[in-house]
């Protein structure tokens, strides 16, 4: 199925291919697989069990998944690297930074976007509030690294302003879309590097991540994790003594966890085939419906968080059979393509009951 065909596929929400979505409000923690993903993983395990799995066939699986990832990020497959974790990609950027370089981060951002820069020990890492990120970019800033959607609060960054400010200052930009791609369109960010792990809103198995790479980043980031899969033809890159590097983003590939990518191919194909405007409207409509029931202001995020220092609201949601989460002293719920108005009412009723 081509990208054009996928893009024109009608979107019915809630999506009936997700068969276990009732009361599941935790896409921001762990997505649940759709039926095609479950079937793909089952087929893969059966073939492996029966001795019919093929390394060469896995290469085809990964390449098709790479194409779907490119569609989700609005780029081409030669601009997409595949790997296992966001922190590995971020670590490559951190390792490539000049000694003493300034890296601008969001105060309270997810550790995978921050920790590799701190671990260097010789970088100047500044943390500022999300709302001030664009204003804090300086001519001395080498990189601005931030999550498009904050994990702890659900806040959505003004990515266009931040990236414009960074471009004016001559700084690189790294955007983590793990909490965005799948519900928030991420095809026109214009960042130098976009990293995403597919196990949340894209509902892929954990262990399948990808990164888009722009021209400047391709020149300035060193592929320190280069291995056999980093060459133009992985099957011709298995042995030294030469260094084999692909011309494009594949040079940053990490040898893929095959079984994870068997499921990821199906999950990314499904996500790339949905109407992004319909998904955005659906998810935000449910999230804001929940906010209205609790007396919270409307927002532009599918993640809803509110203060819950003692965990009483989260406990009430759990007792009602709902799956939610808590982060940084806040209760957190998320609404996605498997949810509907009944989930909104169930969650609101559970919280109201906890409050008497």
What's the topology here?
Blueprint: H1 3-7, H2 35-49, H3 55-73, E1 80-83, H4 86-96, E2 102-106, H5 111-120, E3 124-128, E4 141-147, H6 159-169, E5 172-176, E6 193-197, E7 209-213, H7 215-220, H8 258-273, H9 276-294, E8 303-307, H10 312-319, E9 325-327, E10 330-334, H11 341-354
Parallel strand pairs: 2-3, 2-4, 4-5, 5-6
Antiparallel strand pairs: 1-7, 6-7, 8-10, 9-10
Helix pairs in contact: 2-8, 3-8, 4-5, 9-11, 10-11
Q: Would you give an account of this structure?
A:
The protein is α/β, with parallel strands linked by helices and 356 residues long. It folds into 2 domains: 13-33 and 275-354, Alpha-Beta Complex (Aspartate Aminotransferase, domain 1); 55-272, 3-Layer(aba) Sandwich (Aspartate Aminotransferase, domain 2), CATH 3.40.640. 38% of the residues lie in helices and 14% in strands. It has 11 helices and 10 strands. Strands 1-7-6-5-4-2-3 form a 7-stranded mixed β-sheet, sandwiched between helices. A hairpin with a 2-residue loop joins strand 9 (325-327) and strand 10 (330-334). Helix 2 runs antiparallel to helix 8 (258-273), helix 4 (86-96) runs parallel beside helix 5 and helix 9 (276-294) runs parallel beside helix 11. The longest helix is centred in the N-terminal third of the chain and has 19 residues, at 55-73.
């Amino acid at each position: 199925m081509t990208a054009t065909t996928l893009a024109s596929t009608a979107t019915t929400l809630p999506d009936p291919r997700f068969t276990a979505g009732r009361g599941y409000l935790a896409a921001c923690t762990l997505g649940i697989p759709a039926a095609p993903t479950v079937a793909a993983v089952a087929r893969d395990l059966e073939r492996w069990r029966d001795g019919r799995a093929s390394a060469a066939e896995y290469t085809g699986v990964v390449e098709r998944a790479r194409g779907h990832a490119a569609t989700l990020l609005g780029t081409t497959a030669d601009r997409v690297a595949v790997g296992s974790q966001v922190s590995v990609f971020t670590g490559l950027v951190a390792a490539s930074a000049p000694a003493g370089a300034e890296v601008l981060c969001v105060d309270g951002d997810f550790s995978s976007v921050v920790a590799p820069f701190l671990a260097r020990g010789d970088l100047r890492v500044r943390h500022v509030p999300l709302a001030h990120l664009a204003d804090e970019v300086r001519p001395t800033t080498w990189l601005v690294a931030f999550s498009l959607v904050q994990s702890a609060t659900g806040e959505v960054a003004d990515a266009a302003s931040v990236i414009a400010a960074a471009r004016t200052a001559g700084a690189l930009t790294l955007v983590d879309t793990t909490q965005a791609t799948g519900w928030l369109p991420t095809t026109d960010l214009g960042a130098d590097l976009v990293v995403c792990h597919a196990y949340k809103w894209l509902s892929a198995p954990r262990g399948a991540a990808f990164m888009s790479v722009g021209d400047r980043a391709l020149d300035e980031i060193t592929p320190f994790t280069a291995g056999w899969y980093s060459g133009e033809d992985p099957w011709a890159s298995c042995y030294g003594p030469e260094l084999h590097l692909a011309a494009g983003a594949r040079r940053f590939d990490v040898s893929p966890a095959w079984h994870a990518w068997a499921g990821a191919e199906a999950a990314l194909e499904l996500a790339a085939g949905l109407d992004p405007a319909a998904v955005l409207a659906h998810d935000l409509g449910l999230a804001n419906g929940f906010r209205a029931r609790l007396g919270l202001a409307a927002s532009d995020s599918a993640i809803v968080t509110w203060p819950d220092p003692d965990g009483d609201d989260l406990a009430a949601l759990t007792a009602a059979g709902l799956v939610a989460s808590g982060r940084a002293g806040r209760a957190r719920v998320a609404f996605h393509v498997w949810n509907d108005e009944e989930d909104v009412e169930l969650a609101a009723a559970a919280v109201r009951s906890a409050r008497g």
